[in-house]
Amino acid sequence: MRHSADRRGHRRPPTRHGSPPIHKPHWKWLIISYFFLGGISAGSYVVATAAELFGAKEDRVVTRVGRYLALAAIIPCPPLLILDLGRPERFYTMLRVLKLRSPMSIGTWGLLGFSLFTMVSAAIQAVRDGLLGGPVAGLRRAPVRLWGGVGSVFGFLVGGYTGVLLGATAVPIWARNARLLGPLFLCSALASACSAISLVVAMLPGRRDGSLGRLHRAETMAATGELLMMAVIHLHSGRLGAPLTDGRLGRLHLGGALGLGIVAPLLLHEAGGRLGVPLRLVTVLASLCSLTGGFIVKYVMVMAGHVSADDPAATFEFAGGRMPQPAVRADH
Hints:
mainly alpha; single chain; Formate dehydrogenase/DMSO reductase fold; globular; 332 residues
């Protein structure tokens, strides 16, 4: 046995061949981008449906923007998955069978079904807005509320299953928090979606302070849930949570995901109201901070898995075993 070392040259506990006992995930920017865009799409669809069902008359703009944004954000997701798989036929193979015990299989079919709902809802909205006509004009009479309600079920699935997918692996920090990552990603998706819709609504002509205020309150609720889930994950992880607090990744998590993504938007809204800054300007700045923080959440959680998988001590600790010790030669 020999000691392995990380990229900083620090010695790690020994393993049989001097390498971590599990393979770290290959997921990087393609999957991180998919997690982020898929979350915005799912959250936007849910928010748009909620505005349609329960919102005021002026919240129709939220429904309109949410439906278009859900479609725009979901379009890149299948290509990102296919590029990550390397060959398109691998994606098609996953559609040949539905495995109820496989988060990957359920997520793939959920993404397919959700994509259908987003396309139809966006088409209905386009007909209502006079952007489409002819053969699809009949969509004006479609039961859009029922369609949106059923589609929101798929939206919740797509928004949260990515976290469940991480937890279904053998990576210590993910596996330890298997039941927490799904709710974390769902809260993050809803918060990012509210920010994205707010950003678009704030840039449209006309005053919509009521809708922007309701979106901000919804985002605050989602961000509070996200913050709570992060705190629980830190407490539940114990020593396995070191990648979320140590080094560059830890600073990025604390300063970017928590500071920029959650605290800064709240402070901007509070300070903007006290100083009389126009709500539109405050919303734009706060939304940009929140969206950046939402992306950092996905990046940090994925890359923390890389660090955790490279740590043999974390793997043996999670497995409940004892770290093998190097052989000691005795001289007689």
